[in-house]
Design a protein that fits this description.
It is a single chain. The chain is 27% helix and 25% strand. It is of the alpha+beta class and 152 residues long. The protein has one domain: Histidine kinase-like ATPase, C-terminal domain (Heat Shock Protein 90). It has a five-stranded antiparallel β-sheet, with helices on one face.
Length: 152
């Protein structure tokens, strides 16, 4: 029998910074949303850098959480990135508050479904909560400045 790994039920941390938001209703919108996020990161001084992958890790976490919400939640999905001085706070909400995030365990990665584990590994903190009929799944990811402090 496969063991279930819980995605922790926690409130969203206090995030202060520039807010970037996308309203999504279909998986087909994700490539444009990823491109827009990359553009905003570049404009904020976080261009893709071969020596520091934190910007691409944020884009990957954004894609994983947003695609999970679109596949397993209910639309509309709202993906929010708060660009703070200490890193990024990523919050993705959908209209399925009854369906908690459920990372799979003991499954061959070739079958997919490993996105929550990946995001948890990239994040310094992660969790989920329900507010006004929406489920919010969130992760705090380090930026270039504090990337070295992430536990392995």
């Amino acid at each position: 029998m496969a063991r279930r790994l819980a995605w922790p039920l926690r409130p969203l941390p206090d995030g202060r910074g520039e807010v970037w938001r996308w309203h999504l209703v279909a998986l087909a919108e994700l490539p444009a949303a990823r491109a827009a996020l990359r553009s905003r990161l570049g404009n904020a001084g976080y261009p893709p850098d071969a020596e520091d992958s934190s910007s691409e890790e944020l884009v990957l976490a954004f894609d994983e959480l947003a695609s999970n919400a679109l596949r397993h939640g209910e639309t509309p999905v709202v993906a929010t990135v708060i660009a703070g001085s200490g890193g990024w706070l990523l919050d993705v909400s959908d209209r399925a508050p009854h369906a908690m995030p459920a990372p799979v365990v003991d499954r061959d990665p070739a079958y997919g479904g490993m996105g929550l584990q990946l995001v948890a590994r990239l994040a310094v903190e992660h969790g989920w909560y329900v507010d006004t009929g929406a489920k919010h799944v969130w992760a705090c990811l380090p930026s270039v400045e504090d990337h070295a402090s992430v536990p392995a």
